[in-house]
Amino acid sequence: MIKTLVNAWKIADIRKKLLFTAFIILVFRIGSVIPVPFLNITDDIVSGDKANSILTYLSMMTGSAFNYGTVFAMSITPYINASIIMQLLAVAIPALERMQKEGEEGRKKIASITRFVTVVLGLLQSLAYYFYLRANNYLLMDADGAAFTGFDAVFQAVVIIAVLTAGTAVIMWLGEQITLSGIGNGISIILFAGIVSRFPTLIRQLFQYINTGHMIYKILVPVVIVCFLLMIAYIVFMDNSERRLPITYAKRVVGRKQMGGQNTHMPIKVNMSGVLPVIFASSILSLPGTVQMFIKNQPAEDTFWGKFFDAFQGDSWWYAGMYFLLIIFFAYFYSTIQYNPIEMANNLRKNNGAIPGIRPGRPTSDYILKVLSRLTLIGALMLSVIALFPIVYSLICNQALEDIGGMTISLGGTSLIIMCGVALETVKQLESQMMMRHYKGFLD
Q1: Cβ-count burial 191-213 (b if 16+ within 10 Å, e if not)
Q2: Structure-derived torsion over alpha carbons of residues 413, 415, 420, 425, reported in degrees to the nearest 10
Q3: Would you list the DSSP string of 343-364?
Q4: φ, ψ for residue 3 (rounded to 5)?
Q5: At a CB cut-off of 8 Å and minimum separation 6, what does 60 contact?
Q6: Where is pLDDT greater, at 377 or 205?
Q7: Cα separation of 135 and 338, whole Å?
Q8: Of 376, 371, 335, 350, whose CA–CA distance to 91 is shortest?
Q9: What is the CA radius of gyration of the chain?
Q10: Total-model pTM
């Protein structure tokens, strides 16, 4: 990876793209620390009893900008949600499916619709965020220490919601500029920058554990660092793993030329759904914790609702078990809507291709479906290991070190998967751009 970046920097055209991308990231980080007018947030709003809610997920995706009510507090999450919604609707709505198959013009139309949906979702999310801030007294008060009323309150609400929504639109535009004039994958780069910005907080947290004076922390902190390095290597291995189905094309004579007769393969990635199952699962499990925040009279721990909400806290084994099952469920769900074995088998038959030992048609689609099912299970289990490790590790440490405060890891497996995936994809983009320019040193 380092060699690829060094070689890319030597090419003037790619160097300009790298500098432009770095400038956009700088603008994004500056916007992530500019506070929204009329807000008075002096501490981390996602802490304590709010530590396991959808707010935690938003804080992770925004690089902690959500915690302090900054201009880019909504970050890129509305665009990600809009993209996922469009992918799901393309399966259910034939008009969108046809639009996807229209080539470049169809993709432009879908991109325009996605932008509109992003702004709408950003507006709704900003509205919900405003009501949350108002309920928790994070809004600026008047000179007498009371909340604004009448026209002043309406003006305050309009300004806060408008600034947050505009921040969403600006981030979407910044991501598109990286895609057009930078190194590509603009949205992913913005998300990557937000997650990486949380590293100083993680490092400070690890040093705080060491400075407590307990010898056990001086052993566990290096163990955590080694485990994270091993997880990164594991994610890279998982991302590059694939199953190659052998394909044989029949020979045919066209005029005086003989065509076909070649052997190739159909690559199917083991982790075909990426990080989406983890994102979906964490979003679903965070909803009960979010609802609990808005309940004024909290239920007692020994009541049904008290036990119900406790089961969805990140420090419970019930949460880890449900997390594991939901990851597997969403992995199968996403692979089902992304891959159509019948269509894949028909495309092979139209091109005179076949899998050795498998008859064309229904037997081929059944074989591809069986392979997809097994790979989906393997990929889901591999994702579960990464997503559950920080949770299980924290549970074990908190139970074993209950007398001295336990140990909690603030960086989740979702963040690591996104970071490694974006880094690998960016390196591939740079390599492809260098190959297009026939860079000699690249293949040395």
Answers
A1: bbbbbbbbeeeeeeebeebeeee
A2: 130
A3: HHHHHHHHTTEE-TTS-TTHHH
A4: -60, -40
A5: 195, 198, 412, 414, 415
A6: 377
A7: 41
A8: 335
A9: 25
A10: 0.76
Q: Which two tokens stand for residue 119?
A: 């702004």
Phi, psi of 101 (to 5 degrees): -90, 5
* Residue at token pair 């074990």: 396
Whole-angstrom distance, CA of residue 227 vs CA of residue 234 = 10
- Which pLDDT belongs to residue 163? 92
pLDDT recorded at residue 23: 92
Q: How far apart are the first and last CA of the chain?
A: 15
| Contact (CB, 8 A) for 93 and 337 | no
- The identity of residue 385, as a single letter, is V
- Residue 267 has what DSSP assignment? E
Give me the pLDDT at residue 439, please.
47
Sheet containing 263-269: which strands, arranged edge to edge?
A: 263-269, 242-249, 353-354
Phi, psi of 103 (to 5 degrees): 85, -145
The CB density around residue 385, as the number of other CB atoms within 10 Å, is 15
The average pLDDT across 240-245 equals: 83
Tokens 């769900």 sit at which residue? 333
Question: In the chain, what are the helix, strand and coil shares in percent, each to the nearest 5?
Answer: 70, 5, 25
